[in-house]
Design brief:
The chain is an alpha+beta fold. Helices cover 27% and strands 27% of the residues. The strands form two sheets. Strands 1, 2, 3, 4, 5, 6 and 7 form a seven-stranded mixed β-sheet that branches. A two-stranded antiparallel sheet has the order 8-9. Strand 8 and strand 9 form a beta hairpin. The radius of gyration is 21 Å and the shape is elongated. This is NUDIX domain-containing protein. InterPro entries: NUDIX_hydrolase-like_dom_sf, NUDIX_hydrolase_dom, WH-like_DNA-bd_sf, WH_DNA-bd_sf, WHD_NrtR. Pfam families: NUDIX, WHD_NrtR.
Length: 247
């Protein structure tokens, strides 16, 4: 009696990074120009295959982050985003990507990695709209990463990861506006921020002058879960809605 011998299918594993920062008040994502096939010359997320069979996935993500931004783990928020493994996502074969979301304040101009011809920051809205075309399924990964950030801003202290060690409430509001893509009422935002005890704490080192009167400086507090949450406003889509808001 013949017995079929099963063997596992060959599967390759990569890590991809959705690296977000604010530049001149705009949410930006880091993209690289691919220097190798497939999709040579197209823009894509930074990332790559595991270095060796014994490399841990998180270690690979930290390695790619360091190679693309020269930042150490202690200076950046890094979390696993999702796994992408559609059979046809990569023409080289069955390639599964474990994507990660990375956030840090004021990241510098990037330097292209070993398998990239160039690297640059792109406005997030240009990627989400499809104005900037990406290789593989990377637009889907960027969309998921930005939506993760938008949602976590409501319920967690993730917004402080976009700020430096010290920041003003106006700078924190700029983070919410850039990531959510909507303007917020300053007084209402200040009231909501102050209602979440432990989210941010005042720093006694001084104040920052930003064109008007000096603003108090804050740092991230001990609380990582926001209660009450800062619910993302629903954008108005009709003139009637806009009229009601103005009343």
């Amino acid at each position: 009696m013949q017995v079929d011998v099963w063997s596992p299918p060959p599967v390759l594993l990569t890590v991809d990074l959705v690296i977000l920062t604010l530049r001149e008040g705009r949410l930006c994502v880091l993209l690289v120009e691919r220097g190798e096939d497939p999709f040579r010359g197209m823009l894509a997320l930074p990332g790559g295959f595991l270095n060796h069979a014994g490399e841990e996935i998180l270690d690979a993500a930290h390695r790619e982050l360091s190679e693309e931004t020269a930042l150490l783990a202690g200076w950046v928020h890094l979390e696993q985003l999702a796994t992408y493994g559609d059979a046809g996502r990569d023409p080289r074969g069955r390639v599964v990507s474990v994507a990660h979301l990375a956030i840090a304040p004021g990241l510098p101009e990037p330097v292209a990695g070993t398998d990239a011809m160039d690297a640059a920051w792109a406005p997030a809205e240009a990627v989400l709209s499809g104005e900037v075309e990406l290789a593989f399924d990377h637009r889907r990964i960027v969309t998921d990463g930005i939506e993760r950030a938008r949602t976590k801003l409501e319920f967690s202290a993730l917004a402080t990861a976009f700020c430096g060690e010290l920041f003003t409430i106006a700078e924190l509001q700029q983070v919410y506006e850039a990531v959510w893509g909507t303007e917020l009422d300053t007084r209402n935002f200040y009231r909501k921020i102050q209602a979440v005890k432990g989210f941010i704490i005042a720093d006694g080192s001084g104040r920052r002058t930003t064109g008007g009167r000096p603003a108090r400086l804050y740092r991230a507090g001990p609380k990582t879960v926001l209660f009450p949450p800062l619910i993302r406003p629903v954008p108005s889509t009709t003139e009637e809605d806009m009229g009601e808001e103005g009343e």
